[in-house]
Amino acid sequence: MEGPSSAPGPEPQWLAGRRDSGGDQESEPARDMKTHFRVCRFIMETGVKLGMRSVPVATACVLYHRFFEHVSLHAYEPYLVAMSCVYLAGKVEEQHIRTRDIINVSHRYFNSGSAPLECDKEFWDLRDSVVQCELLILRQLNFHVSFEHPHKYLLHYLLSVKSLVNRHAWSRTPIAETSWALLRDCYHGAICIRHTPQHIAIATLYLALNSYGVELPAGDKEWWQVLCEYVTKADIDAVISDLLQLYDMEAKCI
């Protein structure tokens, strides 16, 4: 972990103390999972408001999860880290977002209907903290900030499966929309860094097809083995199990 001199500056009152305290009977890992879930939801919602594409938002979530693989959740303010991840992801994916816009959208996220922040000392201190935190993230990740996402694989798999399904059955069921929604949900937790992109893409498509009872023509191999040679049913089940656990976490976060 970095020394105290590398820690970001103080965060404003509206950003501090957002961690989930949890109940007395709840374990620390469970409380941390809740916090990570909520912070990634914050990343996604602010990303939408900032007009970010899906891949930069996904990169921001992966940066966040990778960072907290290396440091304790209690060492840094998670929402400040999230803001810096959004800022850094914009650079990595060539969709640069201004720090001022990130700060104002984040402020409005916690203070609905509020006016944009004044460019006072609090604003500039927070801006400096976001930039310092960005450098901290880069050092903790050894500047490895470019990731392969499941998005391109899911797009390819959807096109392949669509050609195998009866077109009327395909048009009646939102397989594509559901698959993309499931993929997006994977980024709320560590699924996106625990499993390979191909396995995540196959598993989300598998779950979408099963949810609507859509069957593919039988062959010598299962359809997922045709699309991804090295994936196994155990790989698919592992992703789905983690995803269902995440949905259980979501129910507890409401």
Automatic annotation (TrEMBL):
Q: Report TM segments.
A: none
Q: Name one Pfam family in it.
A: Cyclin_N
Domain Cyclin-like positions: 41-139, 152-245
Give a yes or no for keyword DNA repair in this entry.
Answer: no
**Keywords assigned by UniProt?**
Cyclin
Q: Where is the composition biased (Basic and acidic residues)?
A: 17-30
In the record, which residues are listed under signal peptide? none
Q: What molecular function does GO assign, one term?
A: cyclin-dependent protein serine/threonine kinase regulator activity
Provide the GO biological process annotations.
Answer: regulation of transcription by RNA polymerase II
**Region Disordered: start and end of each range?**
1-30
Cited SUPFAM superfamilies: Cyclin-like
Source taxon at top rank: Eukaryota
Functional note: May be an activating cyclin for the cyclin-associated kinase CDK10.
Q: Which family is annotated?
A: Belongs to the cyclin family. Cyclin-like FAM58 subfamily.
Q: Under what name is this protein listed?
A: Cyclin-Q
**Organism, as annotated:** Mastacembelus armatus
